[in-house]
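Q: Convert this sequence to structure tokens.
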Amino acid sequence: MRRTLLAAALLAAGPVQGGENPGITGAPILQVPMSARAMGMGGAFTAVGTDASALYYNPGAMSRLNAQEFAFSMVSAPSDSAFDRTMENIAYAGPTPFTGISGNGYTSAGADLLFSQNGTIEYNQLNVDGSAGQSQRMSAGDDFVASFGYSERVGSTPVDFRDSSYGVNHFLGLGGKYIHSSLAGGYSASAVAADIGYLAHSAEAGLSAGVAVANLGSRMRFISEADPLPLTGRLGLAWQFGTPSVHNFIAAADGEYRFYDRQALAQIGLEYFWQKSYGMRMGYQFLRDAPGLTIGFGLRWRGRVVFDYAWGMAGSLSDTQRFTVSYRFGGVSATARGRQRQPARDVSPLEERLRIDEESTPTIELPPQRPRQPRERSQGVPGWIY
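A:
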């Protein structure tokens, strides 16, 4: 009975299974992107990251946010999917008022909560004689991931090219996450992991390049053996061009490598926004078992409320619909974002001695003086003559 239950649970959980086997990783939920905007662009978002989903793709890209943002995302799987699961995601990211550890400004912080219900499975109990016994449905388990991250500008580099000069900002971000998964039958496991991301961005050229490594952490242990987390490396390029007030384009390309799966992936994506309100997206995912097209659109209302939708046709975990609703507030100007810490001025020994003497000298309070009475003018001469 227990073996039958465990086999059913592992079958329902897919790759989340015990065993030190090559290519087997725990917590596959970490490989499911939630953002509808990013998915509409095929997942090519490592060098873009200008919304709350940057914490997932590249923590360093959070420094490009110029406003606070709350986002709620939902993944709706098709009814005939073998993974009859629902996933919800609540994310926050935005700038902070601090100049940062390096003192170069552009600091940002973010947090993310991911919930997944893996549906139900049918459990059939066999009698001793091999005949069918009791049958019931039970939960196939669930997943919970809590993430947080921080990023800041660590430096800037001027670049002269022909007759033009460009400034390149360097951003670095770190993230941490806690993962908890459960399977049917009461089995559960937890793990912790870290992410690191770097982004180079030139506003004058509209170019960005990003590198990120995700899921550096402990293993998931359900029974006696443990599986590693899906360690993933990402490399991305993005180019933003057009007239932002009317036409705005973003073209992006990503390469991705899953170390334990020994699998290299690639994706490209396009985004077009008209008058900052109406957007269309398209992407394509390569080198997968089922490569395919992704499409999506976005609507912005007064620059604060954003609705994004995406649909993908590649793979069992990607052949789904994604919805994201975001709210932006508290915009911060580029001048305030780039404020740097003022360097401490060296004080000479003489200046320090004068300051100490001034602070140690007692203050003498003089007694209050009576106000001086004004002298009366001659009554025979009008005052306005003088």
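The chain has one domain: 2-337.
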